Batch of 4 targets.
Target 1
Amino acid sequence: MTDYIQVGERFDRNVAEHEMKVILDDGLHRHLLFKKPGTTDQHFRIVTWPGYLTFCGDMGTFTFYRNADMFDFFMGSGGGISPHYWQEKLQAGAGSEGSRAIAEEWDSDSFKQSVLGCWEDWLQGDSLPAPEATEEVKEYLRDNLLNCCDEFEAVAAVREYDCDEAPNLLDDFWETSDTRLRYHYLWCCYAIVWGIKQYRQREEQEAA
């Protein structure tokens, strides 16, 4: 799983010299640009209109739909990030599958953990498998699933699973997760919260 803290620390370094430029500020219609002066490296924009917020820039484009004022929605987590919950609000033109596709990616470590989780459930089943059966299943998993190099190979290995000693071992595999949130998506989550804070600090300073 992607380490949220590491992404957050890297984000802080990336935007250490960023400044905010307000291009539009008309109620719920906003257009904010964040970048280091003199360069567009790691720049990003936050654009809102009623019910929507779009993040775009070097790290990709993500559009969310939820509340009339999306700034209130994103700050509802107390200034932290809630990437899994926010992912449900992504608009990708293809329903929930589309939102998962742009926010998640296959992860070999998560896949192996899912396979091993099925293995452990099988070992703890109602009837204790014979030692020779256990070795047969272990060898099958090692040779056919635990050394998969990519998502296509992994999915094929699960679908083609055929081990006589434990025919039902992977029956619940698809209820587990073999993905992780993409680095760019997590960076976007940090950027949105950080950007909103910069905007609200500007409002407070102007009101003082």
Target 2
Amino acid sequence: MKKILKFLGLGLAVLIVAAVIAGFIANEPMPTQREGGTAADELARKMERAVNKTAWDQTRFVSWKFLSGTRYLWDKDKKAVLVEWGDNKVLLNTTDRTGLVYVNGQLVNDTEATQKLIDKAWSQFANDSFWLCAPMKAFDPGTSREIATNKAGEEGLLVHYSSGGVTPGDSYLWLLDDSGKPKAWQMWVNIIPVGGLQFSWEDWSGGTNGPQIAQQHDGKLLDVPIIDLTYPSYTDENSPLKALWE
């Protein structure tokens, strides 16, 4: 048994090392051939139209589950989100990062424990909601836009985030089809040492008139699905988040 475990451990270590080496071989610097100005902004507006940002802005509640298993119910109008993972449930105000925390159904009154779980909920939401609706955020505060060409010679829309989220300073190169709808993106983000990792944007939901949301993002080493995407119809009176404003 010890020999088997040793062999399995060695195999896992080899796979990890191989993945790291493959990642660094695939490392791509951020495009140096790029141009900002009106043309870049027009391309970003084209992307917004392709994903029906108008319908997204008119949508109040969005519910989904992320790859990690964390579940969300986002009230966009109230700027609040219900975040659930394991035995934890956090009702979070996204503007000031305050809220209510429950563990095993019981309200947590300890200030330090509450803040720790609120911080974790915010971090998860900031990341996971970006995978949900990043095409709608090309003009967020702190963004800049450029038309850029990657190493493969593909031209796209490079959006840089100097503020916001958990890791400001990240950049994303959108590769778009002729209509402006994203086909894929490449990312240069602080938490990943390999630059230019590419993930697809596909399996779009929303039909003809709804917000266009890509439910599948495939990468070379990892796939990132958006699971159980729905648009619930709540009011202030029956919202699961109402404890935040009662």
Target 3
Amino acid sequence: MGFGEQRAGGGDWPRPVVPRIGARLSYGLHRVLAANLLYRRLAAWLERGRPAYRWFTRVERVAKEQLYGCRMCGQCALPDTGYTCPMTCPKQLRNGPCGGVAADGRCEVHPDLVCVWVTAIERAQGAGHGADLDLLQRPVDHREWGRSSWVNYWQGRDDGLGVAYGEDDPRPLLRRELGLSPR
């Protein structure tokens, strides 16, 4: 079983993961890896060369798994969630905590661990990116599992992954409901 997983009831259940590097450093790395022409060309080259793509994806998997508990969904929400992988939530919720999160922030499924979303909120707020949590994450496209999210990002396939609410729709109150002020 991989990092962040546990055998329970005959299946693998993700376990909430606290990232191993700070949010500010992660946001800085994101700026270095931001989509540009060079990365777009690299991504196109990687997709043409199957062995290169497999090698690149393997390196991405190991790095992101060790740093963030990444589960390789292929549609990375890390930049919008304080660099805390929402797919490590046992319920794999991508838009905030479930109704079962304890008052002290503990996970309903794994009460010995802090809820992924509590960690995400603290990290995003602390790094000055609390507004990122107001984005609505699209459902996971399961066809992308195991694919490189970096390649997808550089190719523009992640555009609109985190969608802002429209003028007529109320913005989520996730941070206000948890007693956190927006930044």
Target 4
Amino acid sequence: MSKIVSQLFVSVDGVVEAPERWHFPYHDDQMAAAVAEQLDGADTLLLGRRTYEVFASSWPGRGGEVPFADRINSMRKLVASTTLTSPEWHNSTVIRGEVSAELAALKRDRDGHITVSGSLTLVRSLLRDDVLDELQLLVHPIVVGGGERLFPHDGDRMPLRLVHSATFSSGVLQLTYRRA
């Protein structure tokens, strides 16, 4: 049986939007290893449409000199979208309709795990529908102050259980949760 794991960069104040604006000062060998471990452990990359479009416009032009480029470009990609009709990035398939139901069935029928990058709306829906198996947060020691947060203030209560934690020398906390 497969599992679905999300890894998100998040600020101390819960912001996940635009990590390219605040993440890089904290990127070090430990961070690179955590990201590589997540990516190398997966055989499928799951993305929401907006994240897919950002990735599809940048990753195919990157080669082996960029860490993870060959891996991301070659791996199977699933895109949750009702509007994307013809994905052009190599090895991409669109999931239409009931995404959580399709992913639950897919998890039962295979072994390799699926990693989710970014795709906040998708991650929230997978958590709500109890399809996401692990939520890995890389909490950066910065208050961003504004931007979209991982969990909205008016969201549903969702008990989580901490299954792993580590502190990087940069001050980033790696926290892995499962549903309680």
